[in-house]
Amino acid sequence: MIYHIVCPTKYRRVVVSGKVDKTIKSICLEIAKRYEMHFLEIGADRDHVHFLVQSVPMHLPKNIVQTIKSITAREVFKRNPEIKKILWGGNFWTSGYYINTVGRVGSEKAVSDYVKNQGVEKDYVRLHSAQLRMF
Length: 135
Description:
- By secondary structure, the protein is α+β, with helices and mostly antiparallel strands.
- It has helices spanning 18-34, 61-79, 82-86, 107-116, 121-134; strands at residues 2-8, 37-44, 48-55, 98-101.
- It has 5 helices and 4 strands.
- Residues 122-135 have low confidence and may be disordered.
């Protein structure tokens, strides 16, 4: 099974910088070694992270997300203690998440490209500049 998972940071705080992005990716490689998961793509966009994960059908999607969120949160705080000051509540991720299955025929490439291209700076600035002008 292939899943597209999106996990927003707590309070949608902009904390996924280059350093935190690299930390999350290295943690996910460690998770893949210990659990029956394979991370096909990981894309970060400042306040949320997209994961394209392949796992065996015996693992419940909820358990896959729970494993990813709990281990990455603990390790991000351990390796980047300055993040804990920004997210003062003690949680790295929100309680919610998005998950959907991805088919191998056609949509896997589209979703993979979408996840891979997360965090394009000019699009992020343009989107948020337009939102700020509305208020």
